[in-house]
Specification:
heterodimer; A: 451 residues; 6-stranded mixed β-sheet; 5-stranded mixed β-sheet; 17 helices; globular; disordered N terminus; B: 457 residues; alpha+beta
C-alpha cells in the first residue's frame, strides 16, 4: 500500500525495543529559551535571548511597515525598505551605497533588508569582537535612523524592481500567487502585491518613500530581536544604538478585518507552461487567533507534514500527479491565507484539482482520525527542539512574537497547546472556519481551451 | 619563510577563536567499510544524521541520465520489511524531519531528530541501504512525480533551461554535461531493471559515509552504527572511468529561445578543482577570484555593473572548488533596462580582462579574509550545514579537514596568485557563452473569473 494509510501496521518488534531504548536514553530536555523583554526610550519593544556558545550576535528589527501600508502606492513599502542601505547619514558623514556595503563586508557582517505584507525587516549578523561589533552596529543604526534616499539610487532600484516584476511575469508560480491574493483579498490591503505593479512602481516618488519611512520607521512601530553572545546590559545598549535615534512616533493603525469570500471564485490565466499551477484557498487565520492551534494541527494532517499528509498522499503518492502538493495556513496580522496548492502537467490539471477539492471536502466533513491526529501531535511536539536549535531560528521567533504581540511563553507552551488539541475540536473548527464550497481557485497554465 | 607565515596565520586564527577547538570531530570505519564521522555540537538537544553515497549524476552515462535522482525517490518506497511510506511515517512519528538530495557527485539522505531518537534513523537507514524493494507499481508513479519535478524545476523556468544548454555546450565528454534530474527522453525510457542495477552497484556500506552532528557522544554513536550497519555486506564497487574533458580549443556559444520576459547571459570558463588542480593553491585562488567579483554587495559586479555603470539588473559569479571533476568558473547576468546583452557581455569580459591584467587590491583581499573568518563562525549556527560540509568533502574524495583549513588556505592567497589563475583559466579558448533570447509569451486568453455555485464531492 502507499503512504496514505495511517499507521495501523504493528511496529516491528526490533523497532519497538529501540523506541524503548530511545526513551530511556533521552537526556535532559532543554527547556524553551528564556526570553527577556524591555522597551527602548523611544518605545521600541525589545526581545532578547542570551546565546553565549558562539562569538556572534543576530539583531533583527521589524517594523509594521510592509505592503499592507502601501495604500494607493503599491510597491512603496518594498522600495522604501530596499533604499535604506543605498545611502545614509548627512553632510561629511554621509555614506553612499558603496561605502555602506564596503563597511559591512569588511567586518564580515551579514546585513539584509526585506519587506513582506506585514513586516519590513532589517537584520544584521556580526561577530562580537568589539572592533567588529561596534562599527557593524554603527552602520546598522545609520541605515535605520538616517537613510538619505538618494535620487540616483531610487531610479536604479526602481528599474531593478521593474526587472523583477518581469521575472514574475514569466513564472507561472508567481502569476498564480499574485492572482490568488487578489482573489482572496479584493479591496483589503493584503491584495496589494508587495512588489507593486509596473504602473505603480514607475510613478513612485522620493517624497512618497520618505513619507512612508517617516511614518512607519519609528520607535513605537518597531520590534527588536537580539540573540547572541552578549549580556543584558550589552543587549540594552545594542537596542538603543540601532533604533534609539528614531522618533517615538505612533504605531501603525489597526488594519481592517478581512471579509470571508461571499462565494466560490474561479480564475484561469493562460500561460505557455508545460504545467498548470493550481492554488485553492480562502482567508484563514490571524496570529494569536484562538482557533490557531486546532487549525494548525489539523492542517498538519491535511497537507502540512510533507509526504505523509493527506494532500500529498492523494496527489503524489497515490497518483503521481505532482512533485509538490501541500496545504498551509499563513497566519498574519489579519487573516492570512489558507492555501492548498500543486503543479501538474496541463493535461492532468482537471483531475488534480478534483483530487485537491475532494481531499479538502472530506477532511472538513469528517475531520482527522484519532491515529492521524496523534501522529501529527507526535511529529510536532517530538520535533519541537528542531524549531529553535539555532540563533537564526530564535531571532526570527523573537521578531514574530514581538511583532504579533504573542505571549512571551509562546515557545514554552507551544508543545502543550498542540498536545491539547482533540479530534472533535479540529473537526468543529475546520467546519466553522473553512468553507470548501466557497474557495477561490486560481489556475495558471495551458488549459484544454488554451491549447 | 612561507611555512612560517602559514603557521603564524594559523596560530593567530586559533588564538582569536579558541572555540574552534571545541568542535570535536571523530571518525571510525566499520569492518564493512562504512565510514562514520561524528561532530559533537551540544548547543541544542538535536541531531542530524546523514547517509552519503558515492553516486550521483556524474556517475551516469548516456541514456540513463537522472537515474541517481530517480533512485533517491524510490528509496522511500519500502524494503522487504517495511511497506512504502513506512519510513517517512516512522520518522514523522518521532518528531523528525527527513529528506534526501541528489547532486552531480553525491546522493544523500538525512533525518533531523531530537537527539535521543538517533537509533530510529540508523535502524531505518541501515535497512534501506541493502534491502530496498523496487516494485513496478511504485516505480511507474514515482517516475511521473520526477517528470513533474523536471517540468517544475526546468521545463517551465527559462533560466534553468538555459543553464542546462549551457552545461551541455561547455562539456562534451565530462558527465557534468548532463542535468542531475536527467533529460526528459531518458526519464521516459527508464526501466525498473535500470534502477535495480544502479541500486545494486552503488548502495553498499563500503560506498557510503555516515555523518552525525549534534548533541551526541561519539563512542555511543559508533557502537550504535556498528549495531545497525555493521553486519551489512559489502559490494565490489566498480572503478569509475575518468571521463576527463579534453582541452577546449576555442570559444563556444549557444542560444536558447523560449517564451520569457527577460534575457539571461551565462559565461563559463573551464577551471580545475581541488581534486584535479596540479597546485593546491590554485582552486583557492579561483575561490578568491569569484569572491572578488561576487562576494557581497561591495564586490565588483554589484559595485561596478549593478550600481556604478548600471548595465546589469543583476550579476553574479560562481565556482565550486569541491566538485569531483573540472568545472566552470561562471559569470551570469541580466541586463538593466536600456542596455543590451552585448553591452552586458562586454562589461563582464572587461571584468575578466582586468583580473588578468591588474592585481586585486589589498582592501579586497582583506575583505574576503574577514568574510571567510566570520563565515566559519556563522556556519556553526547550523548543525545541518556542518554535516553537509563533512559529507560533501568525504564523498567527493577529499578529507573533511579540508573545510577546517579553508580560512587559512583562502587567507594565504596572494594578489599575484589571483592574477595567475585568471591568466591561466579566464581565456577565450576555455569560454562557453549561453544566451537566452526571449520569445514573446503568448498571452492567450485573459484572466477569466466566474462565480461557481458549488463544488461537488
Amino acid at each position: 500500500m502507499s503512504a496514505t494509510k495511517p499507521l495501523t501496521n504493528p511496529v516491528p518488534r526490533s523497532l519497538f525495543l529501540l523506541l524503548l531504548a530511545a526513551a530511556l536514553w533521552a537526556g535532559p530536555l532543554q527547556a524553551a529559551p528564556d526570553i527577556q523583554q524591555w522597551q527602548t526610550k523611544n518605545g521600541a519593544r525589545v526581545l532578547f535571548i542570551v546565546a553565549p556558545e558562539l562569538p556572534m550576535v543576530d539583531v533583527r528589527v521589524v517594523f509594521d511597515a510592509g505592503s499592507a501600508r502601501d495604500e494607493e502606492r503599491p510597491g512603496r513599502a518594498l522600495l522604501t525598505n530596499a533604499l535604506l542601505e543605498e545611502g545614509a547619514g548627512a553632510g561629511e558623514a554621509h555614506l553612499d551605497a558603496d561605502a555602506i556595503a564596503e563597511r559591512l563586508d569588511a567586518l564580515g557582517a551579514e546585513f539584509s533588508t526585506n519587506s513582506m505584507r506585514d513586516m519590513a525587516v532589517v537584520s544584521l549578523r556580526t561577530l562580537t569582537q568589539p572592533e567588529l561589533l561596534a562599527p557593524a552596529l554603527d552602520t546598522m543604526a545609520l541605515v535605520l535612523t538616517a537613510p538619505s534616499f538618494p535620487e540616483e539610487a531610487l531610479e536604479r532600484e526602481r528599474r531593478r524592481v521593474l526587472v523583477a516584476l518581469k521575472r514574475q511575469q514569466q513564472s507561472p508560480e508567481e502569476i498564480a500567487n499574485k492572482a490568488f491574493y487578489a482573489a482572496l483579498y479584493g479591496t483589503h490591503p493584503y491584495a496589494i502585491p508587495p512588489m507593486g505593479t509596473e504602473a505603480s512602481v514607475a510613478a513612485l516618488t522620493r517624497e512618497e518613500l520618505l513619507a512612508h519611512y517617516r511614518r512607519y520607521y519609528v520607535g513605537r512601530n518597531a520590534v527588536v530581536g537580539i540573540v547572541g553572545a552578549v549580556n543584558r546590559s550589552q543587549a540594552e545598549a545594542i537596542a538603543e544604538q540601532v533604533v534609539g535615534g528614531l522618533p517615538a512616533g505612533e504605531r501603525a493603525p489597526v488594519l481592517p478585518e478581512v471579509d470571508a469570500l461571499p462565494e466560490a471564485m474561479r480564475s484561469h490565466i493562460s500561460h505557455p507552461s508545460s504545467q498548470t499551477h493550481i492554488l485553492l484557498g480562502q482567508p484563514g487565520v490571524r496570529r494569536g487567533d484562538p482557533d490557531y492551534f486546532p487549525l494548525y494541527v489539523g492542517n498538519h494532517v491535511l497537507g502540512g507534514s510533507g509526504l505523509v499528509s493527506r494532500v500529498s498522499a492523494e496527489v503524489r503518492e497515490k497518483r503521481g500527479l505532482a512533485y509538490s502538493a501541500y496545504s498551509y495556513f499563513s497566519p498574519m496580522n489579519r487573516k492570512g491565507p489558507f492555501i492548498l496548492g500543486l503543479q501538474t502537467r496541463n493535461e492532468s490539471a482537471p483531475e488534480a484539482l478534483g483530487v485537491l477539492q475532494e481531499t479538502l471536502a472530506r477532511f472538513v466533513a469528517d475531520g482527522p482520525t484519532a491515529e492521524e491526529l496523534a501522529a501529527a501531535q507526535k511529529n510536532i511536539t517530538g520535533g519541537f527542539a528542531l524549531n529553535i536549535d539555532s540563533n537564526r531560528d530564535k531571532v526570527e521567533y523573537l521578531a514574530m512574537i514581538g511583532f504579533y504581540d504573542l505571549p512571551l511563553d509562546y515557545l514554552e507552551t507551544f508543545p502543550a497547546k498542540v498536545q491539547a488539541v482533540t479530534v472533535s475540536q479540529v473537526k468543529e473548527t475546520f467546519q466553522r472556519r473553512v468553507a470548501p464550497e466557497r474557495m477561490a481557485t486560481v489556475t495558471v497554465g495551458m488549459s484544454a481551451e488554451d491549447r | 619563510m612561507k611555512t612560517r607565515l602559514t603557521i603564524s596565520r594559523f596560530l593567530l586564527t586559533a588564538f582569536l577563536f579558541p572555540l574552534f577547538a571545541s568542535a570535536q570531530v571523530h571518525e571510525h570505519t566499520l569492518g564493512n567499510g562504512l565510514k562514520v564521522i561524528v561532530k559533537e555540537d551540544h548547543r541544542a538537544p538535536v541531531v542530524v544524521s546523514q547517509v552519503w553515497y558515492k553516486v550521483g549524476a556524474s556517475y551516469e552515462y548516456e541514456g540513463i541520465t537522472g537515474i541517481s535522482h530517480l533512485l533517491e525517490h524510490m528509496m522511500f518506497k519500502g524494503t522487504e520489511k517495511r511497506p512504502s511510506g513506512e519510513f517517512s511515517r516512522i520518522i514523522a512519528e518521532h518528531g523528525g524531519r527527513e529528506n534526501a538530495f541528489t547532486s552531480r557527485d553525491y546522493t544523500a539522505y538525512y533525518q533531523q531528530l531530537e537527539a535521543s531518537r538517533l537509533p530510529i534513523s540508523f535502524e531505518l537507514e541501515a535497512d534501506r541501504m541493502r534491502n530496498l524493494q523496487l516494485r513496478e507499481e511504485e516505480f511507474e508513479k514515482e517516475l511521473k512525480v520526477v517528470m513533474e519535478e523536471r517540468r517544475l524545476r526546468t521545463e517551465d523556468k527559462p533560466s534553468s533551461l538555459t543553464h542546462e544548454q549551457f552545461m551541455a555546450t561547455a562539456f562534451h565528454v565530462s558527465p557534468y554535461k548532463s542535468p542531475v534530474i536527467g533529460w526528459m527522453g531518458d526519464l521516459e525510457s527508464m526501466t525498473l531493471s535500470d534502477l535495480e542495477g544502479w541500486y545494486k552497484t552503488w548502495y553498499a556500506p563500503n560506498n557510503a559515509t555516515l555523518v552525525v552532528v549534534g548533541n551526541v557522544e561519539p563512542a555511543e554513536v559508533f557502537a550504535l552504527a556498528d549495531k545497525h550497519f555493521g553486519k551489512l555486506p559489502t559490494s565490489q564497487i566498480p572503478p569509475l572511468k575518468p571521463r576527463r574533458e579534453p582541452p577546449q580549443r576555442g570559444e563556444r556559444r549557444v542560444t536558447v529561445k523560449v517564451p520569457a520576459e527577460l534575457p539571461v547571459l551565462m559565461m563559463g570558463y573551464k577551471a580545475p578543482v581541488l581534486r584535479t588542480a596540479e597546485a593546491e593553491w590554485k582552486p583557492y585562488a579561483l575561490e578568491v577570484l569569484a569572491s572578488i567579483l561576487d562576494g557581497g554587495d561591495s564586490a565588483r559586479l554589484s559595485r561596478e555593473l549593478v550600481r556604478g555603470r548600471q548595465i546589469a539588473a543583476s550579476a553574479g559569479a560562481g565556482y565550486d572548488l569541491y566538485a569531483r571533476q573540472d568545472t566552470l568558473l561562471s559569470l551570469s547576468g541580466v541586463p538593466a533596462p536600456g542596455h543590451t546583452m552585448k553591452e552586458l557581455e562586454q562589461a563582464l569580459r572587461q571584468q575578466v580582462a582586468r583580473l588578468r591584467e591588474e592585481l586585486v587590491s589589498a582592501t579586497e583581499l582583506a575583505r574576503i579574509k574577514a568574510q571567510v573568518t566570520a563565515a566559519k563562525v556563522y556556519e556553526r549556527d547550523s548543525v545541518f550545514y556542518q554535516a553537509m560540509q563533512i559529507g560533501t568533502l568525504e564523498t567527493v574524495g577529499l578529507d573533511w579537514r579540508e573545510a577546517e583549513r579553508y580560512p587559512e588556505r583562502v587567507n594565504a592567497v596572494t594578489a599575484e596568485q589571483v592574477r595567475q589563475v585568471a591568466r591561466e583559466c579566464l581565456t577565450d579558448e576555455r569560454l562557453t557563452v549561453a544566451v537566452l533570447e526571449p520569445l514573446p509569451i503568448e498571452k492567450g486568453a485573459q484572466p477569466v473569473s466566474e462565480g461557481v455555485s458549488h463544488v461537488r464531492h
